[in-house]
Amino acid sequence: MKTLLDYIKEAEEKKIAIGHFNISDSEGFRAVVEAAKSLNVPVIIGVSEGERDFIGLQEIVALVQTARENSLPVFINADHTYSVEKAKVAIDAGVDSVIIDGANKSFEENVTMAKEVTEYAKGKNILVEAELGFIGQSSKVLDRIPEGVTETNPEDAKSFIEQTGIDLFAPAVGNVHGMVKSGEPKLNIELIKRIMEVAGIPLVLHGASGNSADEIREAIDAGISIIHINTELRIAYKEGIEEGLRSGEIAPYKFLALGVEEMKKVVIEKLSLFNKLNKVIS
Ligand SMILES: [Zn+2]
Asked: Active-site residue 6, yes or no?
């Protein structure tokens, strides 16, 4: 079976992107896997520190491995990991990739953390991602753009990637975590192109909930290979479950099923967009 890196390289060549969707329970996992299966595309399951504490790191790794044994190209990423120790725990648990997040630290501290994780992951067939530039930290609906948001300088990106030896790079290019009520800031497509020219490794776009389909397509054409969606999934899941609860149903597999269905719709729409399966989506 092809590795995550094989699929990422394939996506780069085809000018498409792999979808990365965050989940925190087995229902969310099902929604993402069923959506990807229905479209026959690879997919990455993301679990942040909070999400993996809830579902259990070993449990979600086992779920992904089981899906993969059924020949589904499903991969697991330990999303935003704020300490080297926790990144090592995730690597030992058998994830396919890990994000060491030192984005709100100094450049030097960020380099030190990322370097330590790449050295630990060496030879283990696990991809290490890091980010430079700050895009906020919460997957919520926000009143305003989070404080301290910056954009990545391409020269800094180049030096960061060379010094750390990371496999994947997450730039700050106008993207923000969460969704901004007053309107999502625009992606800086020119900056993506400039970073792509110097990076030499695949680029990952975080916080893509709320960005328009046109912007996403431009970002992919500019060089983005993986796209993260979380907030839109959370909203869909919550609304589906609320509907399920309103029906008076008490069987969890019935009222939760509506959450799964709503989440699945969002994943299918995003995967179609990222994989350029349906040009009419807007
Ligand atoms: Zn993120």
From this structure: no
Ligand 1 centroid distance, CA of 133 (Å): 12
- For 124, phi and psi rounded to 5 degrees? -105, 5
Lowest mean pLDDT among 20-29, 146-155, 163-172, 211-220: 146-155
DSSP string, the chain: ---HHHHHHHHHHHT--EEEEE-SSHHHHHHHHHHHHHHT--EEEEE-HHHHHHH-HHHHHHHHHHHHHTT--EEEEEEEE-SHHHHHHHHHHT-SEEEE--TTS-HHHHHHHHHHHHHHHTTTT-EEEEEES---S--SEESSPPTT-----HHHHHHHHHHH--SEEEE-SS--SSEETT-PPPP-HHHHHHHHHHH-S-EEE---TT--HHHHHHHHHHTEEEEEE-HHHHHHHHHHHHHHHHTT---HHHHHHHHHHHHHHHHHHHHHHHTT--TT--
Rounded to the nearest angstrom, the distance between the alpha carbon of 17 and the centre of ligand 1 is 16
Q: List CB contacts of 70: < 8 A, sequence separation 6 or more.
A: none
pLDDT tens sequence across 233-263: 999 999 999 999 999 999 999 999 999 999 9
Give me ligand 1 centre to Cα 103, in Å.
11
Q: Rounded to an integer, what distance in angstroms lies between the CA atom of residue 187 and that of residue 194?
A: 13
Closest CA to 208 of 164, 240, 173, 165: 173
| pTM of the model as a whole | 0.95
